[in-house]
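Researcher: Last one for today. Full complex below.
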Amino acid sequence: MPDPEQIAIDVRGAVKRYGDFVALKTISLSIMDNEFFTLLGPSGCGKTTLLRMIAGFEDVTEGAIYLFDEEIETLPPNKRPVNTVFQNYALFPHMTVLDNVAFGLEMRGASRPEARTRAAEMLELVQLGAFAARKPAQLSGGQQQRVALARALAPRPKVLLLDEPLSALDLKLRKAMQLELKHLQRETGITFIFVTHDQEEALTMSDRIAVMSAGELQQLGSPSDIYERPANMFVADFIGETNLLDVSVDRVDADGATCHLGGGHVLRGVAGDGVQAGAQVHLSIRPERLFMSETPVAADGLRGQVRENIFVGTDITTIVQLDDGPDFVVRTSNSDRGNKRIFDPGTAVFVNMEQGAARLLTG
Amino acid sequence: MKGPFDLRSYTGFRAITVLCLIVLYAPLIVVTVYSFNASQSLTNWEGLSLRWYADVFTGPESGKFKIAARNSFVIALIAASVATAIATLAATGMVRGGRFRGRALSFGLISLPIMVPEIVLAVATLIFFNAIGFDRGLLTILLAHIAFCIPFAYLPISARMQGIEDSYEQAAMDLYATRRQAFTRILLPLMMPGIISGFLLAFIVSLDDFIITNFVKGAGVETLPTAIFGSVKQGIKPNIMAISTLLLAVSVVMVTLSYLVGKSDNTK
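Model: Here's the assembly. Have a good evening.
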């Protein structure tokens, strides 16, 4: 039975070097049993390398990887009870869909009828029972993706690894598959490790997210931790949209810090680690945590002028230029129009921050 | 594709095409047609007949041709099989071996014999067998054929293999297959069209070879091409046309098969 207190994959000080190039700098993280865990980062950040090290396709230069307390980093891929859904699916093109799904079971020693029975069950689970006799090339991208999923889940791996499995699907199908994957993970109780560069996908599906960049772990936390409380500039910028401003810290006190921008604007934000009076730091605030008013609502209202309103379906994005200062992006949800006002371009307004929404980051 | 850049719009396109086709195929057509001639003469047409085909199988030279034909087919079969096996392993090593020093050089060395003038290969092989004191006979022909068949088998196999992503084998090993199982269950079936194509090509190259065979064969040992040549030296008789047409037919069938198999796809 899955035990949420138990560690499924424990990466201990893993390093990956190719010659002089360091693909992964010392990474340690623990992935819990029955968790939907996402490795998120831009291409080249080392997320796929880490996944392939867990699968056994890349050796570990230094450090160790444990799977339920068993050290696995020296085992070949076929000796590791983890399965992978590949980015291009890698379905065996000369075999039928059913034989593809039965392959792992047969290799593990199941008899052919036994393997086929279980494979047929797996195909039912992903709603492809009717396609068992087809070759992979006769299926659509979304169907191939489900076959890849069924094939990887059929041998009941302890951990399922997914290498950007949704990147080849169109937006609508991707959204549907996101929900289905999440559902499948709950149903099977198997730990999923999901690799993606799509932050929205990561936020939607994950229990926890590890944000990576340049071979380093930037932040590890729940989707809301990472979105609301980014640990550094990279995370703030990479996850969602944000206003990033260079500010000088005037005073640090118990519930935050007061700082100023050029143009005499004074702001308050929640201080991250290492924020001290006199320091030059970055202030990050999400566009949806800002609102506009004709008169300042609080002492830290910022005076500016509306430049442009952009209608983007569910929201209206407003660009406000602060007097003698930078631009702010303010997002107002259409469902929030009762409380928040939209002003015409050219109107002088005050930009206000929601309490505790601005964060000061040192790097 | 019709348009201003249509090749067919150039002056003389049709004439040149026809000329090329005539130069290439007229001799073959003449031989094929006259192999059905009822006349003793090579050039006078006296009506349709299969007498020269009968002569090939039952005439005074039929014994010699039968032995030569058997030698040719046995050598072609063994040489093509061995060369294909070696070429398959070579292609696996070259395409799946990752980057290693001398990879480009290895590829060049494998395919070079196709470009080297055959007479040079023939002389070199003869000198080699002499130098090591190897008595010439059927075995020397076989060894020489295996050697020069390898590049012909290698090319279609490696071309096929380059089109197979290595993620298939990774997926197989991820699904608990050993390295050997990944090779036999996944890679080999996917390579099979290339392997069959390579085998057929090697077979036909071996069957048709004259120059190298003529150099390394022992006295009294003949393959079909050397037997035909020996017979022609005593004057061309119409039975030579019949036997040439038969050989041509075998070649056409094999090359067509090789082409079809090479294009075939076991993934549909």
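The longest strand of chain A covers residues 7-18. Chain A is about 25% helix and 35% strand.
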